[in-house]
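Bit of a strange request maybe. I'm writing a small parser for structure token strings and I need a real example to test against, not something I typed by hand. Could someone generate the tokens for this chain?
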Amino acid sequence: MLFIHRYSDAVHTDLKVDANQFLISFPGSKALFEGIMGFIQVNATVVIATDTINDCLRRINLQTGQTAAFAGTCRGSGYLDGKLLNDARFNDPYGIVSFKDDYYITDSRNNAIRVIEEQRDWVSTIISGSRHLVDPLAITFNPFSTNYVALVTTFSKGLYSVNMKTNSVTQLTNRVGETGTLSASKLPDPRSMTFISDSVVVIAVPNLGQLAIIDLTRNDISYICDGTRATRNGDIRSCQLKNPFSVMEIKDSLYIAQLEGIRRLPLTALAEFIQPPTTTTSSTPTTIKYGNYGKIDWGPTRMIYVSIGGGDCQSRRLKETWTLDKNGGP
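Reply from user aminoacidic:
Good idea to test on real output. This should exercise your parser:
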């Protein structure tokens, strides 16, 4: 198994996969995993992984190679809230994400979203019984927002917005479709996802051999790479991905985990999908965060100067200049 170390920018290959048994053993311990479908790096030392087929979560120490139970009972499926190790039960826990010091889990076979409050030593259920959230898979929060609203992909080819405060679920994709309006599209087997700006999310779609680029503000969806499930470098139109299952944004690049390795895509290649802000009330020069890799400067001449990947508005990557109206909008 390959994974990216967020704190050292290294690609580790020391987790060995037994292809015959689909068991993963970590060096330095006798621990066996069966189907790690999600993990989160807590710090430079600790990773928490969903041991999906074993119905539990495990803590991995990257320095010592030791593992320990974190939540649930391994090989003891069920559906129960309570203390992390004594009471809680899961049935195919899949995705995991941290938000405001807690961990949110998609409990796939229980059709539920669970939250782990480690400081309280408690697992509780946020969403369950929704007719939409059937076999939830990946889950993510918008890192540019403090709202308790997550995006969730499901095995039934859907993308949903889930409000953790109101326990409400909103379906974002609907019928079979292709590039165009998001609400008229269906994502075939969507998996991992990551935000690249406050309104744009990238989703790995292994069955298509592509990445879906979704603009939540404009309600549209596009795909990159040509859909041939193979391995070929190229621009975002001609590239080929072989069953991309996972995508992660780290330091101005997308890392894509696919069959036969990890691919890297500079975020500057996706500049056309990132839209400028629509309004502003600022009347003085200021700098606004723009995605994870650039910024917008409101200059003294009331023009917008865009910097992407260290370039400026004269860069060949960006051929447009936006003029402000009298209200400060582009």
